[in-house]
Amino acid sequence: MPVFALVDCNNFYASCEKLFDPTLRDTPIVVLSNNDGCVVARSAESKTLGVPMGAPWFQLHDLARQHGIRAFSSNYALYADMSSRVVEILSSFTPSMEVYSIDESFLVLDGLPGTREEIGREIRERVARWVGLPVCVGIASTKTLAKLANHAAKKALAGRDGVCDFGAMTPDEVSTLFASIPVAEVWGVGRRIDERLAEMGIGTVRQLRDAPPGWIREHFSVVLERTVRELNGVSCLNLEDVTPDKQQIMASRSFGNPVFDLEGLSESVASHTTRAAEKLRAQRHVAGAITVTIRSNPFKPWEPQYNRSEVVPLPEPSADTRELIRAALWGLRRIYRTGFAYKKAGVMLSGLEPERRRQSSLLVDPERERKSAALMQAMDSINARWGRGSLRPLVTGFDASWRMRREKLSPAWTTCWDALPRVTG
DNA sequence: TCTGGGGTCCTAGGACCC
DNA sequence: TCTGGGGTCCTAGGACCC
């Protein structure tokens, strides 16, 4: 039977912000979404003050003033860099690991020296010592249980040592613990399923674990059935240690200020397409279609609403920014209507396939393809050397009014020489 | 004034085929 | 009066995740 560990950084974004500013040590802080919209991470102090996850920041101004809560714009350059440092440390324990998200990784502990709890504690200590971030470790025989053990380490068993191994507990202890955890904490149980389970009298992890899998499948889905089996120690989800290629690539943003005209929308759609095309080439794929989406602000229902998207198939699969922009703008012109305050635009690339293996059609001019590839490669190299957006299509524009707000951004401490922290005294 | 972005999987239903 | 059955492919929509 495999042994999974889930390592999860505590309050990851908030912890990253605190790491480089010691004066924030006991200060309640929050990290905001793009456009400084809503709360996406809270430090322990903010959670204690009752700051809800996902709350719009503008609704929290009073609470913030009252308790001195400091807010930060999300600084993904910093978080991504700290994440890669944590991953590097974790991979020193075992090559059998899956980087599940920016702040979570699954490790398979089978065959490692020491008891499972000792390994868990060593992971915590090494990460704390080498990068200064707090993590918790959940250990169990399935991924779903390891996620739950991690939750227990953070909540129900907080105050112990940040490590929870279900394998070290008796069946009775586990059952008692499960009876105290709301079913919504289980990986795979979201809001809707939680509501429906509640109607059926299932409110705790223990009740879900003890529900008949067949009955769950009948009333819900094979997905939740798998969850129930995993809660019973039957491993259904494997470690995905090779990251699969993306099947679709998206790029979208809300606007800092509403946009009314086609020109502004075109600039943003061209910008998003440029970014999406970069991701596409990084994965060495071509796209068969691009979808353009524009929408008004659903949080202002008293304003006229509009929400539409258009799928534009490409004549030939491509990774050429210019061709993708041409297709995206064609789609945009088809769906654009005047008289709306647009809040968001985005594109999605689909029909992805490897650039090599694809069928070459009679319509493709090999010389033109070669030139396209060379140009894109040159553009990517220049942007890698001089920073994103150094060389970009003219249609992405110079008007900054629609670009996002990031008024509370912390420095790029670890990824920009000019922002390197200074030690004095 | 002010409410994120980027993904995956599963299912149902329609089109189409033999 | 009475109108097959089964398979595949695609898309849209709903659920979930961080």
Question: How is this structure best described in words?
Answer:
This protein is α+β, with helices and mostly antiparallel strands and 425 residues long. The chain has 3 domains: 4-9 and 79-231, Alpha-Beta Plaits (2-Layer Sandwich), CATH 3.30.70.270; 12-77, MutS, DNA mismatch repair protein, domain I, CATH 3.40.1170.60; 249-357 and 373-396, DNA polymerase, Y-family, little finger domain (Dna Ligase, domain 1, 2-Layer Sandwich). It is 38% helix and 20% strand. The chain is built from 14 helices and 13 strands. It has helices at residues 12-19, 44-48, 61-67, 76-91, 116-130, 143-154, 171-179, 191-199, 205-209, 213-219, 222-231, 262-282, 321-335, 366-386, and strands at 4-9, 29-32, 39-42, 70-73, 97-101, 104-108, 135-140, 163-165, 249-259, 285-296, 307-318, 342-350, 353-354. The strands form 3 sheets. A 5-stranded mixed β-sheet has the order 5-6-1-7-8. A hairpin with a 6-residue loop joins β2 (29-32) and β3 (39-42). The termini are far apart. The mean pLDDT is 93. It binds a DNA duplex (18 and 18 nucleotides) through residues 32-38, 40, 54-59, 61, 74, 100-104, 187-193, 221-223, 246-254, 297-299, 344, 346, 348, 404-405.
Task: Describe this protein with a few key phrases.
425 residues, MutS, DNA mismatch repair protein, domain I, Dna Ligase, domain 1, 3 domains, five-stranded mixed β-sheet, five-stranded antiparallel β-sheet, 38% helix, DNA-binding
Through-space gap between termini: 54 Å
CATH architecture annotation of the largest domain: 2-Layer Sandwich
Q: Could you describe the largest sheet, including whether it forms a barrel?
A: 5 strands, mixed
- Using only C-alpha atoms, the radius of gyration works out to 24 Å
State the name of the first-level CATH class of the largest domain. Answer: Alpha Beta
Number of helical elements: 14
Q: Please write the string of helix (H) and strand (E) elements.
A: EHEEHHEHEEHEHEHHHHHEHEEHEEH
Low-confidence stretches: none
CATH superfamily grouping of the largest domain = Reverse transcriptase/Diguanylate cyclase domain
Structural domain count: 3
Kindly report the spatial arrangement of strands forming the biggest sheet: 5-6-1-7-8
